[in-house]
Write a structure and sequence with these properties.
Elements lengths: L1 E5 L15 E4 L7 H17 L3 E7 L2 H5 L11 H10 L4 E6 L2 H4 L3 H13 L3 E5 L12 H11 L2 E5 L12 H9 L3 H8 L5 E10 L4 E8 L10 E9 L8 E11 L2 E7 L12 E10 L4 H18 L1
Parallel strand pairs: 1-4, 2-3, 2-5, 3-4, 5-6
Antiparallel strand pairs: 7-8, 7-12, 8-11, 9-10, 9-12, 10-11
């Protein structure tokens, strides 16, 4: 997948063009099942038209621009989002820098400068509630009229709901994570959510119990509810199979301190300070007396492994 990082100076440059592309637009935070429906339709149309399937998203997230001191809320950082989009078969990702110039751009200039002048798209596909441009004054009617004027087709997708008649949304996923309901979040996402952390230090006791101390790798990413979680961890980069630590216990107190416990028999390679881990917690585990609970849990996992 091609990734284009578009700054204000890049807008209108022909070297970024994907003539005739089917372009899905949105923040796509979390790339949840509602987003997947949009992406699937874009991919389907692109195949029919023998055109590239493209996505336009924004970095930083507009909320971070308008509310720089907002509490962490992102479900995915830019690299995780890009990886998920690539897995969905997207050919090209336009990450447009959201700055003061873009915030002041009118809806018509957004269409003329970005959709037509930068991408050269043949089809635009968005959700039915899509808004854009300065003060979010742009809507579906404006896009439709502009498409007729500039020669691109507009398709809209209705909001997607689950069997509980709830709309798939990033807000619903965030609510699950804040409540410690990771399985609920994963059901809405369609993939196993993870929390990225950076290792600060590592220590191992005589019994082989390893404890990693870590902090949030991206301060804007939503952390799980404080508590203890079982799960697994993956060292980013390299071979995923070789870099996965199974059977870990995650203790999350604050984004400034996350502790990851695991039996050294399950992963023997030293993990240096500065390494980035993707933590995949399961639902919150209720524990009393953390040290004893952690040791007991690791012992149980070790016994299970030996019996296997």
């Amino acid at each position: 997948m091609q990734r284009f990082f578009i700054t204000n100076a890049d807008i209108g440059q022909e070297n970024f063009r994907s003539p005739g592309a089917v372009l899905a637009i949105g923040n796509l935070d979390g790339v949840h099942k509602g987003h997947t429906a949009l992406l699937s339709r874009a991919k389907e149309l692109a195949t029919e038209k023998a055109a590239p399937a493209a996505v336009m998203s924004f970095s930083p997230h507009p909320r971070l621009f308008f509310q720089p001191d907002a509490a962490p809320f992102l479900l995915t950082d830019d690299d995780t989002k890009a990886g998920l989009l690539e897995e969905k078969g997207i050919d090209c990702l336009y990450s447009v820098q959201f700055d003061a110039a873009l915030a002041e751009m009118s809806a018509l200039d957004f269409i003329r400068s970005l959709l037509v002048g930068t991408v050269g798209c043949g089809t635009v596909i968005v959700g039915e509630d899509f808004r854009f441009g300065k003060n979010r004054l742009g809507d579906i009617d404006i896009l439709k009229q502009a498409g007729e004027a500039y020669g691109f087709e507009l398709q809209t997708l209705r909001l997607v709901t689950d069997d509980k008649a709830g709309v798939f949304s990033s807000s619903r996923v965030r609510d699950c994570i804040r409540a410690g309901d990771i399985s609920g979040a994963n059901a809405l996402l369609g993939w196993n959510w993870h929390y990225p952390v950076t290792v600060l230090d590592s220590e191992r006791d005589d019994s082989g119990l390893t404890c990693l101390s870590a902090k949030a790798a991206n301060s804007a990413v939503l952390p799980p509810k404080p508590g203890g979680y079982t799960g697994f961890a993956r060292i980013t980069g390299g071979n995923p199979a070789a870099n996965t630590i199974q059977k870990v216990f995650i203790l999350h107190n604050t984004p400034d301190l996350v502790r990851i416990f695991f039996d050294a028999r399950f992963y023997t390679t030293p993990i240096p300070a500065g390494a980035t881990l993707a933590l995949h917690p399961e639902d919150e585990t209720q524990t009393e007396g953390l040290s004893a609970a952690t040791a007991e849990w690791l012992m149980q996992q070790g016994n299970k492994r030996e019996s296997l």
